[in-house]
Amino acid sequence: MTTPPPFPLPDDAELLRLDHQICFSLNAAARAFGGVYRDALKDLGLTYPQYLAMLVLWEEPDPQPVKAIGERLRLDSGTLSPLLKRLEGAGLVARERSAEDERSVVVRLTEAGEALRERALPVPRRIVTATGLSLEEALTLRALLERLTGNLDAAQGGGR
Amino acid sequence: MTTPPPFPLPDDAELLRLDHQICFSLNAAARAFGGVYRDALKDLGLTYPQYLAMLVLWEEPDPQPVKAIGERLRLDSGTLSPLLKRLEGAGLVARERSAEDERSVVVRLTEAGEALRERALPVPRRIVTATGLSLEEALTLRALLERLTGNLDAAQGGGR
DNA sequence: CACAACTAAGTTGCGCACAATTAAATGAGG
DNA sequence: CCTCATTTAATTGTGCGCAACTTAGTTGTG
């Protein structure tokens, strides 16, 4: 799969080393984020993925099918089903079969889940501070990451 | 997460939304990388973390203690021990107690492990192509990610 | 020398991510 | 109406990442 060089590539070996470093840096940053979120969310008893699921529900408090949450977070039922069960076990959400479509399971916040929102409010600022990035850097980074993800997804099976 | 293009935003609420998006984008990109690497490494029978461990050994073929590999990859024995056992099971590496320090376990490539290097050579180019990033973008991204990781690590327990 | 402190690997337990499979419900076409 | 492909969750199995703990070997200090 030799493609026309999109650039005057400097040197093969040089270029070939770069990618690991990018994927590696990416993984390292993601894990570092994980550590910071772990600290910030410990009091709430949430993991970062659980926090993301709660964010989805806090933003759109109407009951949502698992499918919708999965599309928002790019996760499938293999990940979400046990995660949501744990949130249910913690009393933060309730799951029930939809009446209209019995295939669908709708998830809604319990009162405890809604109440947790207040305690989660200071979290984002804590994270922003921890990143130490300027607003401009953050925007640059996000733009690059989104382009990168789009390219990688396209290079793969296409959809998923 | 679908968000409107950030525009004028020295606003608190706006700022507080940004962070999720960055961590989220980061995770999404890392997982997208995972998918591409999965495809590229399938023939080799390696996962991406296993590939990273092999890279460390290919770059420095002398036997290395688990500790050294862990420092290179930022992984602890809880992750590395089973991973290296799987590589050993695949016949790619051998592990043995160090003579000088009986606490240490040194890992070295087997002949099969060395031979695999040849088959892994085309992988990086495939990844570079899939990213679709220019060299300049890649360098910018990497620099930002490393700064970010440093900041996040510092904001955490300090060491780990 | 004895003993505490430290270090390197390994083990266990939990949660996440993903592939593959299963089960149940829905919808479209004959 | 009945069959069949599709859709939605859940389940199973594998591997990673990390915290907490264990085991064994090493080092420092009195």
Characterize the structure shown.
Two copies of one chain form a homodimer. Helices cover 64% and strands 8% of the residues of chain A. By secondary structure, chain A is mainly alpha-helical. In chain A, strands 1-3-2 form a three-stranded antiparallel sheet. The longest helix of chain A has 30 residues, at 12-41. Chain A is globular. The mean pLDDT of chain A is 90. The structure holds a DNA duplex (30 and 30 nucleotides).
Element layout with pairings:
Two copies of one chain form a homodimer.
Chain A: H1 12-41, H2 48-59, E1 64-65, H3 66-73, H4 77-89, E2 93-97, E3 105-109, H5 111-120, H6 123-131, H7 135-155
Antiparallel strand pairs in A: 1-3, 2-3
Helix pairs in contact in A: 1-6
Chain A binds a DNA duplex (30 and 30 nucleotides) through residues 31, 34-35, 38, 47-50, 65-67, 75-83, 86, 101-105.
Considering residues with a beta carbon less than 8 A from a beta carbon on another chain, report the largest interface and each chain's count.
A-B, 65 and 63 residues
Tally of separate helices of chain A:
7
Number of E strands of chain A: 3
Uncertain spans of chain A, ≥5 residues at pLDDT below 50? none
Strand content of chain A: 5-15%
Give the class of chain A from helix and strand content and strand pairing: mainly alpha
**If strands are numbered along the chain, what order do they take across the biggest sheet of chain A?**
1-3-2
Q: How much helical structure, as a percent, in the residues of chain A?
A: 55-70%
Compressed to H and E, one letter per element, the order of chain A equals: HHEHHEEHHH
Our measurement of the CA-to-CA distance between the termini of chain A, rounded to an integer number of angstroms, reads: 22 Å
Oligomer: homodimer
Radius of gyration of chain A, whole Å: 20 Å
Give the overall pLDDT of chain A as a whole number: 90
